[in-house]
TrEMBL record:
Residues 315-357 form the FAD-binding domain. SUPFAM superfamilies: FAD/NAD(P)-binding domain (SSF51905). GO terms for molecular function: FAD binding; monooxygenase activity. It comes from the Bacteria. It holds the Pfam family FAD_binding_3. Keywords: FAD, Flavoprotein, Monooxygenase, Oxidoreductase. This is 2-polyprenyl-6-methoxyphenol hydroxylase-like FAD-dependent oxidoreductase.
Amino acid sequence: MRVIVVGAGVGGLTLAQGLRQAGIEVVVYERDGELGRPQGISLHIDERGASALRACLPAAQVAMAEATMGGPREQTLTLSEVDGSLVVASRQPADGLAGRARPGRQAHRPLLRAVLLTGLEDVVRFDSEVTRFEQRPDGTVRVWCADGRTDTADVLVGADGIGSAIRRQYLPDVRVVDTGRRMLMGATPLRAVAGTGLPDLIGDSPASLRAGDTMLVLGVLRFTESPATARKGWLPGLSPNAVAGVEDYVMWALPTTQDRLGAAKKPAEVWHRATELITDLPPALCAVLAQAWPEATVALRIGTIPPPRAWPASAVTVLGDAIHLAPGFGANLAMRDAHHLRDALAEAHHGRSTLLDALAGYENTMRRTSFTPAKASA
Ligand SMILES: Cc1cc2nc3c(=O)[nH]c(=O)nc-3n(C[C@H](O)[C@H](O)[C@H](O)COP(=O)(O)OP(=O)(O)OC[C@H]3O[C@@H](n4cnc5c(N)ncnc54)[C@H](O)[C@@H]3O)c2cc1C
Protein backbone atom coordinates (compact mmCIF):
# COMPACT_ATOMS: atom_id res chain seq x y z
CA MET A 1 0.00 0.00 0.00
CA ARG A 2 1.19 3.53 -0.79
CA VAL A 3 -0.27 6.60 0.95
CA ILE A 4 0.06 10.27 -0.01
CA VAL A 5 -0.39 12.66 2.93
CA VAL A 6 -0.97 16.33 2.06
CA GLY A 7 0.23 18.57 4.90
CA ALA A 8 3.14 18.22 7.35
CA GLY A 9 1.29 19.60 10.39
CA VAL A 10 0.92 17.72 13.66
CA GLY A 11 -1.77 15.44 12.20
CA GLY A 12 -0.05 14.61 8.89
CA LEU A 13 3.32 13.97 10.52
CA THR A 14 1.86 11.77 13.29
CA LEU A 15 0.13 9.73 10.58
CA ALA A 16 3.30 9.49 8.46
CA GLN A 17 5.31 8.30 11.48
CA GLY A 18 2.62 5.74 12.30
CA LEU A 19 2.42 4.41 8.73
CA ARG A 20 6.19 3.98 8.63
CA GLN A 21 6.05 2.07 11.91
CA ALA A 22 3.40 -0.19 10.33
CA GLY A 23 5.56 -0.83 7.24
CA ILE A 24 3.32 1.17 4.88
CA GLU A 25 4.94 3.35 2.21
CA VAL A 26 4.14 7.04 2.71
CA VAL A 27 5.07 10.35 1.12
CA VAL A 28 4.15 13.78 2.57
CA TYR A 29 3.65 16.90 0.43
CA GLU A 30 4.02 20.19 2.34
CA ARG A 31 3.32 23.62 0.86
CA ASP A 32 5.72 25.49 3.18
CA GLY A 33 9.48 25.24 3.57
CA GLU A 34 11.09 23.20 6.35
CA LEU A 35 10.66 25.91 9.02
CA GLY A 36 6.93 26.19 8.36
CA ARG A 37 4.85 29.25 9.15
CA PRO A 38 4.29 30.58 12.68
CA GLN A 39 1.25 28.89 14.30
CA GLY A 40 1.78 29.95 17.90
CA ILE A 41 4.44 28.78 20.31
CA SER A 42 2.55 26.39 22.63
CA LEU A 43 0.15 23.48 22.52
CA HIS A 44 -1.72 21.96 25.45
CA ILE A 45 -1.38 18.22 24.85
CA ASP A 46 -3.95 16.04 26.60
CA GLU A 47 -4.23 12.25 26.79
CA ARG A 48 -5.75 12.03 23.28
CA GLY A 49 -2.67 13.58 21.69
CA ALA A 50 -0.19 11.94 24.06
CA SER A 51 -1.51 8.43 23.43
CA ALA A 52 -1.46 9.05 19.65
CA LEU A 53 2.19 10.07 19.91
CA ARG A 54 3.00 6.94 21.94
CA ALA A 55 1.19 4.73 19.41
CA CYS A 56 2.57 6.24 16.20
CA LEU A 57 6.11 7.46 16.91
CA PRO A 58 9.32 5.49 17.42
CA ALA A 59 10.36 5.23 21.09
CA ALA A 60 13.15 7.84 20.78
CA GLN A 61 10.78 10.47 19.38
CA VAL A 62 8.24 9.73 22.15
CA ALA A 63 10.95 10.07 24.82
CA MET A 64 12.15 13.38 23.33
CA ALA A 65 8.60 14.78 23.10
CA GLU A 66 7.78 13.80 26.68
CA ALA A 67 11.11 15.03 28.10
CA THR A 68 10.53 18.47 26.64
CA MET A 69 6.95 19.05 27.75
CA GLY A 70 6.15 21.08 30.84
CA GLY A 71 4.85 19.71 34.13
CA PRO A 72 1.35 18.27 34.62
CA ARG A 73 -1.53 20.75 34.29
CA GLU A 74 -4.29 19.46 36.54
CA GLN A 75 -6.17 22.66 37.32
CA THR A 76 -6.93 26.03 35.77
CA LEU A 77 -6.56 29.20 37.82
CA THR A 78 -8.46 32.47 37.82
CA LEU A 79 -6.32 35.39 38.97
CA SER A 80 -7.32 38.75 40.35
CA GLU A 81 -5.50 41.79 41.71
CA VAL A 82 -5.85 42.57 45.43
CA ASP A 83 -4.09 45.64 46.87
CA GLY A 84 -1.76 45.78 43.90
CA SER A 85 -0.75 42.11 44.09
CA LEU A 86 -1.85 39.19 41.91
CA VAL A 87 -3.60 36.39 43.80
CA VAL A 88 -5.35 33.15 42.83
CA ALA A 89 -9.06 33.93 43.15
CA SER A 90 -10.32 30.44 42.24
CA ARG A 91 -9.20 27.03 41.01
CA GLN A 92 -11.06 24.62 38.75
CA PRO A 93 -10.04 21.03 38.18
CA ALA A 94 -8.86 20.30 34.63
CA ASP A 95 -10.89 17.10 34.40
CA GLY A 96 -12.49 17.43 30.97
CA LEU A 97 -15.99 17.48 32.53
CA ALA A 98 -18.74 20.06 31.92
CA GLY A 99 -16.73 21.87 29.23
CA ARG A 100 -13.64 22.21 31.42
CA ALA A 101 -10.15 21.65 29.98
CA ARG A 102 -8.66 18.18 30.12
CA PRO A 103 -5.51 17.53 32.11
CA GLY A 104 -2.33 17.55 30.06
CA ARG A 105 1.07 19.12 29.58
CA GLN A 106 2.30 22.10 27.61
CA ALA A 107 4.48 21.47 24.55
CA HIS A 108 6.68 23.87 22.60
CA ARG A 109 4.99 23.71 19.22
CA PRO A 110 7.98 24.26 16.86
CA LEU A 111 10.06 21.74 18.83
CA LEU A 112 7.28 19.13 18.74
CA ARG A 113 6.98 19.60 14.98
CA ALA A 114 10.74 19.13 14.58
CA VAL A 115 10.55 15.92 16.64
CA LEU A 116 7.70 14.70 14.42
CA LEU A 117 9.80 15.41 11.31
CA THR A 118 12.81 13.48 12.62
CA GLY A 119 13.13 10.19 10.77
CA LEU A 120 10.85 11.33 7.93
CA GLU A 121 13.46 13.43 6.12
CA ASP A 122 13.39 11.13 3.08
CA VAL A 123 9.60 11.20 2.65
CA VAL A 124 8.60 14.82 3.31
CA ARG A 125 8.61 17.01 0.18
CA PHE A 126 8.74 20.66 1.29
CA ASP A 127 7.73 23.58 -0.97
CA SER A 128 5.22 21.24 -2.64
CA GLU A 129 1.69 22.60 -2.75
CA VAL A 130 -0.90 20.05 -3.85
CA THR A 131 -3.58 21.74 -5.94
CA ARG A 132 -5.93 18.92 -7.01
CA PHE A 133 -6.45 15.19 -7.33
CA GLU A 134 -8.16 12.67 -9.60
CA GLN A 135 -9.67 9.32 -8.58
CA ARG A 136 -8.73 6.84 -11.32
CA PRO A 137 -10.71 3.86 -12.64
CA ASP A 138 -8.19 1.39 -11.14
CA GLY A 139 -8.96 2.72 -7.63
CA THR A 140 -5.75 4.73 -7.24
CA VAL A 141 -5.56 8.50 -6.73
CA ARG A 142 -3.32 10.94 -8.62
CA VAL A 143 -2.33 14.34 -7.22
CA TRP A 144 -0.99 17.44 -8.95
CA CYS A 145 1.42 19.92 -7.37
CA ALA A 146 1.45 23.63 -8.19
CA ASP A 147 4.74 23.15 -10.10
CA GLY A 148 3.15 20.50 -12.38
CA ARG A 149 4.58 17.38 -10.67
CA THR A 150 2.20 14.45 -10.22
CA ASP A 151 2.19 11.41 -7.96
CA THR A 152 -0.07 8.39 -7.53
CA ALA A 153 -1.02 6.27 -4.51
CA ASP A 154 -3.66 3.87 -3.16
CA VAL A 155 -4.85 6.39 -0.55
CA LEU A 156 -4.81 10.20 -0.42
CA VAL A 157 -5.10 11.88 2.99
CA GLY A 158 -5.90 15.58 3.21
CA ALA A 159 -4.13 16.70 6.40
CA ASP A 160 -3.82 20.19 4.97
CA GLY A 161 -5.45 22.26 7.68
CA ILE A 162 -8.28 24.80 7.76
CA GLY A 163 -7.91 25.89 4.11
CA SER A 164 -7.64 22.28 2.86
CA ALA A 165 -7.48 22.02 -0.94
CA ILE A 166 -8.33 18.31 -0.66
CA ARG A 167 -11.52 19.00 1.36
CA ARG A 168 -12.56 21.81 -1.01
CA GLN A 169 -12.45 19.44 -4.00
CA TYR A 170 -13.67 16.27 -2.22
CA LEU A 171 -16.36 17.69 0.07
CA PRO A 172 -17.29 21.02 -1.53
CA ASP A 173 -20.37 21.42 0.69
CA VAL A 174 -18.33 21.56 3.89
CA ARG A 175 -18.08 25.19 5.01
CA VAL A 176 -15.51 26.96 7.14
CA VAL A 177 -17.14 29.82 9.02
CA ASP A 178 -14.88 32.67 10.13
CA THR A 179 -16.16 33.63 13.59
CA GLY A 180 -14.42 37.01 13.40
CA ARG A 181 -12.64 36.07 16.62
CA ARG A 182 -8.85 36.13 16.77
CA MET A 183 -6.36 34.80 19.28
CA LEU A 184 -3.19 36.82 19.68
CA MET A 185 -0.51 34.51 21.04
CA GLY A 186 3.04 35.14 22.08
CA ALA A 187 5.76 34.24 24.53
CA THR A 188 8.04 35.98 27.01
CA PRO A 189 11.31 34.53 28.33
CA LEU A 190 10.74 33.25 31.86
CA ARG A 191 13.94 34.93 33.06
CA ALA A 192 12.45 38.35 32.13
CA VAL A 193 9.55 37.92 34.58
CA ALA A 194 11.12 35.58 37.15
CA GLY A 195 11.34 38.37 39.76
CA THR A 196 7.63 39.27 39.56
CA GLY A 197 6.39 36.26 41.55
CA LEU A 198 3.95 35.39 38.74
CA PRO A 199 5.68 32.12 37.65
CA ASP A 200 5.70 30.84 41.26
CA LEU A 201 2.07 31.87 41.74
CA ILE A 202 0.74 29.88 38.79
CA GLY A 203 3.21 26.97 38.65
CA ASP A 204 2.44 24.72 35.65
CA SER A 205 -1.28 25.58 35.55
CA PRO A 206 -2.96 27.70 32.88
CA ALA A 207 -4.19 30.93 34.48
CA SER A 208 -6.43 33.74 33.29
CA LEU A 209 -7.32 37.22 34.43
CA ARG A 210 -10.21 39.30 33.17
CA ALA A 211 -10.68 43.06 33.48
CA GLY A 212 -13.81 44.35 31.74
CA ASP A 213 -13.81 43.01 28.18
CA THR A 214 -10.15 42.05 28.24
CA MET A 215 -8.90 38.62 29.23
CA LEU A 216 -5.35 37.31 29.20
CA VAL A 217 -4.44 33.63 29.50
CA LEU A 218 -0.99 32.65 30.72
CA GLY A 219 0.99 29.45 31.06
CA VAL A 220 4.58 28.81 32.12
CA LEU A 221 6.57 26.18 30.24
CA ARG A 222 9.52 24.98 32.31
CA PHE A 223 11.04 22.23 30.18
CA THR A 224 11.17 18.99 32.17
CA GLU A 225 14.64 18.45 30.62
CA SER A 226 16.52 21.19 28.82
CA PRO A 227 15.86 20.66 25.09
CA ALA A 228 19.58 20.59 24.23
CA THR A 229 20.32 17.95 26.89
CA ALA A 230 17.26 15.91 25.94
CA ARG A 231 18.32 15.94 22.28
CA LYS A 232 21.70 14.48 23.16
CA GLY A 233 20.18 11.82 25.40
CA TRP A 234 17.07 10.83 23.47
CA LEU A 235 17.14 11.95 19.84
CA PRO A 236 20.58 12.94 18.47
CA GLY A 237 19.09 12.79 14.95
CA LEU A 238 16.94 15.86 15.75
CA SER A 239 18.21 18.95 13.97
CA PRO A 240 20.36 20.99 16.42
CA ASN A 241 18.56 24.10 15.12
CA ALA A 242 15.36 22.81 16.75
CA VAL A 243 16.81 23.24 20.25
CA ALA A 244 19.22 26.15 19.71
CA GLY A 245 18.26 29.02 22.01
CA VAL A 246 15.05 27.33 23.21
CA GLU A 247 14.49 28.34 26.86
CA ASP A 248 11.73 28.33 29.49
CA TYR A 249 9.02 30.89 28.75
CA VAL A 250 5.60 32.26 29.64
CA MET A 251 3.01 31.69 26.93
CA TRP A 252 0.26 34.30 26.74
CA ALA A 253 -2.94 34.39 24.72
CA LEU A 254 -5.28 37.32 24.26
CA PRO A 255 -8.71 36.59 22.75
CA THR A 256 -9.96 39.49 20.63
CA THR A 257 -11.76 40.23 17.38
CA GLN A 258 -10.63 41.15 13.89
CA ASP A 259 -12.20 44.59 14.41
CA ARG A 260 -10.07 45.24 17.51
CA LEU A 261 -6.94 43.77 15.90
CA GLY A 262 -7.30 46.14 12.98
CA ALA A 263 -4.67 46.14 10.24
CA ALA A 264 -1.84 44.55 12.27
CA LYS A 265 -0.37 41.60 10.36
CA LYS A 266 3.38 41.23 10.86
CA PRO A 267 4.47 39.63 14.20
CA ALA A 268 5.89 42.88 15.63
CA GLU A 269 2.73 44.78 14.62
CA VAL A 270 0.52 42.16 16.28
CA TRP A 271 2.66 42.25 19.44
CA HIS A 272 2.43 46.05 19.53
CA ARG A 273 -1.36 45.91 19.10
CA ALA A 274 -1.58 43.30 21.91
CA THR A 275 0.27 45.66 24.28
CA GLU A 276 -2.26 48.39 23.41
CA LEU A 277 -5.25 46.10 24.05
CA ILE A 278 -4.26 45.10 27.60
CA THR A 279 -3.75 48.45 29.28
CA ASP A 280 -6.74 47.71 31.63
CA LEU A 281 -4.90 44.69 33.07
CA PRO A 282 -2.68 44.81 36.19
CA PRO A 283 0.87 46.14 35.62
CA ALA A 284 2.45 42.70 36.28
CA LEU A 285 0.60 41.30 33.26
CA CYS A 286 1.34 44.34 31.08
CA ALA A 287 5.01 43.70 31.95
CA VAL A 288 4.74 40.12 30.63
CA LEU A 289 3.68 41.42 27.23
CA ALA A 290 6.10 44.32 27.26
CA GLN A 291 9.03 41.90 27.62
CA ALA A 292 7.79 39.37 25.05
CA TRP A 293 9.67 38.21 21.97
CA PRO A 294 7.84 40.37 19.36
CA GLU A 295 8.76 38.03 16.49
CA ALA A 296 7.08 35.07 18.25
CA THR A 297 3.65 36.80 18.22
CA VAL A 298 0.89 35.56 15.93
CA ALA A 299 -2.76 36.42 15.30
CA LEU A 300 -4.68 33.19 14.76
CA ARG A 301 -8.04 33.13 13.01
CA ILE A 302 -10.76 31.25 14.93
CA GLY A 303 -13.01 29.37 12.53
CA THR A 304 -15.64 26.69 12.90
CA ILE A 305 -16.93 23.90 10.62
CA PRO A 306 -20.60 22.88 11.05
CA PRO A 307 -20.88 19.05 11.31
CA PRO A 308 -21.15 17.66 7.76
CA ARG A 309 -23.44 14.84 6.61
CA ALA A 310 -21.76 11.42 6.28
CA TRP A 311 -20.22 10.77 2.86
CA PRO A 312 -19.42 7.43 1.19
CA ALA A 313 -15.87 6.22 1.81
CA SER A 314 -13.39 6.22 -1.08
CA ALA A 315 -9.60 6.22 -1.47
CA VAL A 316 -9.57 9.91 -0.45
CA THR A 317 -9.96 10.93 3.18
CA VAL A 318 -9.28 13.86 5.51
CA LEU A 319 -8.09 14.42 9.06
CA GLY A 320 -7.59 17.16 11.65
CA ASP A 321 -8.34 20.81 10.91
CA ALA A 322 -9.07 19.92 7.29
CA ILE A 323 -12.45 18.58 8.46
CA HIS A 324 -13.11 19.78 12.05
CA LEU A 325 -11.91 22.77 14.06
CA ALA A 326 -11.36 23.11 17.81
CA PRO A 327 -8.96 25.99 18.51
CA GLY A 328 -8.14 24.91 22.07
CA PHE A 329 -7.61 21.21 21.40
CA GLY A 330 -7.59 20.69 17.61
CA ALA A 331 -4.03 19.35 17.59
CA ASN A 332 -5.11 16.61 19.99
CA LEU A 333 -7.99 15.71 17.67
CA ALA A 334 -5.69 15.77 14.62
CA MET A 335 -3.23 13.42 16.31
CA ARG A 336 -6.05 11.15 17.47
CA ASP A 337 -7.41 11.03 13.90
CA ALA A 338 -3.91 10.10 12.71
CA HIS A 339 -3.74 7.29 15.28
CA HIS A 340 -7.14 5.87 14.26
CA LEU A 341 -6.41 6.20 10.54
CA ARG A 342 -3.02 4.51 10.93
CA ASP A 343 -4.69 1.58 12.74
CA ALA A 344 -7.38 1.32 10.04
CA LEU A 345 -4.88 1.39 7.16
CA ALA A 346 -2.68 -1.20 8.92
CA GLU A 347 -5.72 -3.52 9.13
CA ALA A 348 -6.24 -3.18 5.38
CA HIS A 349 -2.52 -3.51 4.65
CA HIS A 350 -2.40 -6.83 6.50
CA GLY A 351 -5.51 -8.11 4.71
CA ARG A 352 -7.74 -8.06 7.79
CA SER A 353 -10.26 -5.70 6.15
CA THR A 354 -10.86 -4.16 2.76
CA LEU A 355 -9.44 -0.70 2.19
CA LEU A 356 -12.89 0.88 1.84
CA ASP A 357 -14.22 -0.78 5.02
CA ALA A 358 -11.15 0.43 6.91
CA LEU A 359 -11.59 4.00 5.67
CA ALA A 360 -15.35 3.97 6.36
CA GLY A 361 -14.67 2.78 9.93
CA TYR A 362 -12.12 5.55 10.48
CA GLU A 363 -14.44 8.24 9.08
CA ASN A 364 -17.44 7.07 11.13
CA THR A 365 -15.40 7.24 14.33
CA MET A 366 -13.93 10.61 13.39
CA ARG A 367 -17.34 12.15 12.58
CA ARG A 368 -18.83 10.75 15.81
CA THR A 369 -16.06 11.81 18.17
CA SER A 370 -14.60 15.00 16.73
CA PHE A 371 -17.76 17.01 16.15
CA THR A 372 -19.44 16.39 19.52
CA PRO A 373 -17.17 18.66 21.64
CA ALA A 374 -18.34 21.78 19.76
CA LYS A 375 -19.72 23.29 22.97
CA ALA A 376 -16.44 22.77 24.77
CA SER A 377 -14.65 24.41 21.84
CA ALA A 378 -16.86 27.48 22.22
C1 LIG B 1 -5.42 30.23 18.95
C2 LIG B 1 -5.24 28.75 18.81
C3 LIG B 1 -4.70 28.03 19.88
C4 LIG B 1 -4.60 26.65 19.80
N1 LIG B 1 -4.13 25.94 20.86
C5 LIG B 1 -4.16 24.61 20.82
C6 LIG B 1 -3.74 23.82 21.95
O1 LIG B 1 -3.28 24.33 22.98
N2 LIG B 1 -3.85 22.46 21.86
C7 LIG B 1 -4.37 21.87 20.75
O2 LIG B 1 -4.51 20.64 20.72
N3 LIG B 1 -4.71 22.59 19.65
C8 LIG B 1 -4.64 23.93 19.67
N4 LIG B 1 -5.02 24.64 18.58
C9 LIG B 1 -5.48 23.95 17.36
C10 LIG B 1 -4.30 23.40 16.55
O3 LIG B 1 -3.41 24.46 16.25
C11 LIG B 1 -4.78 22.77 15.25
O4 LIG B 1 -5.96 22.07 15.50
C12 LIG B 1 -3.75 21.81 14.67
O5 LIG B 1 -2.60 22.50 14.27
C13 LIG B 1 -4.33 21.06 13.47
O6 LIG B 1 -3.36 20.19 12.97
P1 LIG B 1 -3.47 19.69 11.46
O7 LIG B 1 -2.30 18.77 11.26
O8 LIG B 1 -4.83 19.20 11.16
O9 LIG B 1 -3.30 21.02 10.59
P2 LIG B 1 -2.12 22.07 10.54
O10 LIG B 1 -1.29 22.00 11.77
O11 LIG B 1 -2.74 23.37 10.16
O12 LIG B 1 -1.22 21.56 9.34
C14 LIG B 1 -1.64 21.63 7.99
C15 LIG B 1 -0.39 21.62 7.10
O13 LIG B 1 -0.80 21.49 5.74
C16 LIG B 1 -0.03 22.36 4.94
N5 LIG B 1 -0.80 22.64 3.72
C17 LIG B 1 -1.92 23.39 3.61
N6 LIG B 1 -2.37 23.35 2.34
C18 LIG B 1 -1.53 22.57 1.63
C19 LIG B 1 -1.48 22.15 0.27
N7 LIG B 1 -2.41 22.52 -0.62
N8 LIG B 1 -0.47 21.35 -0.11
C20 LIG B 1 0.50 20.93 0.79
N9 LIG B 1 0.49 21.31 2.09
C21 LIG B 1 -0.52 22.10 2.51
C22 LIG B 1 0.20 23.58 5.82
O14 LIG B 1 1.30 24.34 5.39
C23 LIG B 1 0.42 22.92 7.19
O15 LIG B 1 1.77 22.60 7.41
C24 LIG B 1 -5.03 26.01 18.62
C25 LIG B 1 -5.48 26.75 17.53
C26 LIG B 1 -5.61 28.11 17.62
C27 LIG B 1 -6.17 28.87 16.44
